[in-house]
């Protein structure tokens, strides 16, 4: 598994447990009326699960598993996927920040960052979405020859 | 495909069917033209059946199957952790799906504490999933000596 995929998939697992734990606290709050402040974190919970968990996982698995660009296993320049990931983490950081200190522009800024991340990952993946190209190996010479 | 992955993926399909059944019930109930629609309480159950029961469980099932193996002796790591995650995940989500609408329909102390129990089971399941998958997100498949 390449370095970017390791980072992205591990980040996605962390978002799953952190976002899910926030959701669990929200559910407890709904049932017994404790910690009402947790409801400010609702948007952050939804984004952590839909963007942090799902998109990070998809980015990581896509970079790892999509067809390579040549017979040497070149996946393409990784700067685009790292940029996509950076934009995604920045969007999530903005949302978490805005959950704690409400900020009216947060949703617009976070959505714009997520949109840029989508463009970057699409740009990286586009040339890799092709039939598998494997250059034929030179024919082996038999030991008997 | 390993037995574990089959259980996760088949159960994910069960949640998909349940989610659509709930969706159909909610949409049909809008035709009754009631002042307050009691099935509106199922909306949160619908979202979680779809995104947690179906999407997340399918992803975890496929990850168990396709992620790099942990070791030759234990290709999927400690399977007890994976089975514990499976049980807590589905018990938590199932219990939540039953008791969360009851909080609106027939609230009681028992319902409230059942929701707290469901929340704890769901959060525990996510941490067990992290424990199960984290060691399998790695650069190379380790080979037994």
TrEMBL record, chain B:
Keywords: Membrane, Transmembrane, Transmembrane helix. InterPro entries: Cyt_c_oxase-like_su1_sf. The keyword Membrane applies. It comes from the Bacteria. The chain crosses the membrane at residues 12-33, 45-69, 81-99, 111-134. This is Uncharacterized protein. It comes from Herpetosiphon geysericola.
